[in-house]
Amino acid sequence: MFTGIIESVGSIRAIVPQGGDVRVTVQTSSSGSKGADLSMSDVHLGDSIATNGICLTVIEMGADYYVADVSGETLRRTTLGQWKIGTRVNLEKALLPTTRLGGHLVSGHVDGLGEIVVQRQDARSLYYEVRAPRELARYLAEKGSVTVDGISLTINQLSGSTLSLNLVPHTANHTNINDWKVGSFVNLEVDVLARYLERLMLGDRAADTVGNSESSGVTMALLQESGFLSRR
Asked: Which residue segment(s) compose the domain that 61 sits in?
């Protein structure tokens, strides 16, 4: 688990195809940001590091890098397939029981890709609008939390599946958001509590649902039957 508070901005050193999937090498020294290098002194083989919001398992490491295998599922679900040598990535080591939970609980399991559709300056902040996949809209809430490229952010407003975000100068200086442009795609992870709440509300019906189609989730009828909506 992670918090969505970025520790460092690294970069991709190598991407090696491995017969259908890939192996990536991530440089952990700070890349074009004001943050510190990611210390590898307390990292062990098998540990997890969130890399642009993707939970990757360390299979090899050195003082300033780590190597991870990436499955086909991860390539399909995330922006990793678009990475190139030199791509800057947000880095966060897994939280400890003593870690301050400055953001929110983040699993590092990407739910889908969002597209940057608006970018502008808003006083000293940067304002973005991100169009999320339609099927993720039901997990998003105004003033709720969302993880974007590994960054824990608050949703200012929602319009359908498009969410607006304001990022303060500190976040801009310590993450890779200055690389985001209109048309860029970003990794999205919804609040884990929203996903589990949906499954819990389905009860025994959860075993009968197939895939992630909207018809298999929480419906207005189910909310009414569960007492969340009044019958009129």
From this structure: 8-93
Do both 179 and 198 map to the same domain? no
Q: How confident is the model at residue 211 (pLDDT cuts 50, 70, 90)?
A: low
Total-model pTM: 0.85
Q: Which of 93, 127, 162 is the last residue of a domain?
A: 93
**160-172 burial, b if ≥16 CB within 10 A, otherwise e?**
ebbbbbebeeebb
| Closest listed residue to residue 53, CA positions, set 173, 153, 132, 120 | 153
Task: Encode pLDDT of 155-166 as tens digits.
Answer: 999 999 999 999
State how far the Cα of 165 lies from the Cα of 172, in Å rounded to an integer: 12
**69, 71, 145, 149, 163 from 75: Cα distances, Å:** 11, 6, 24, 15, 24
To the nearest 5 percent, what fractions of the chain are helix, strand and coil?
20, 35, 45
Q: Are residues 88 and 15 in the same domain?
A: yes
- 8 Å CB contact between 109 and 189: yes
